[in-house]
Amino acid sequence: MADDPEPKRLHPQAISRKAFRLLRSKGFYDSHAEKLHMKLEGPRVGFHRKIREPTINRPGLALSGFYTYFAEKRVQVLGAAEYSYLKSLRSNVRVKRFRKLCECKFLAW
After folding, report:
1. Is 1 among the domain residues?
2. What angle do CA 108, 22, 78 make, to 5 degrees?
3. How many CB atoms lie within 10 A of CB 89?
4. CB–CB of 78/109 below 8 Å?
5. Does residue 7 lie in a domain region?
6. Tens-place pLDDT, residues 56-102
7. Which of 73, 84, 93, 98 could form a disulfide with 89 if both were Cys (CB 3.0 to 4.6 A apart)?
């Protein structure tokens, strides 16, 4: 009907944020490491941190040097694109870019 108001549309993240319950990094890792094929490469530090943002960030732009809109509150995920990009760089540049990313104060990898 023409007089019916348009239904409200919720952004998918609005729904997930509302239903999202607080989780610590350790709980997430312990629950999902095997299923997601995650491998801990360093010491177990930062596992006390709280995951408050139910979304992830793919830091490809940060690896290229762009940090203006870096989503530091999100869990950082390096996927195939980020991995391929890093492999395409000269070794000294790759180390420099990755170290700069690791200096950011973000929640978790």
Report:
1. no
2. 25
3. 15
4. yes
5. no
6. 889 999 999 998 888 888 888 888 999 999 999 999 999 999 899 88
7. 93
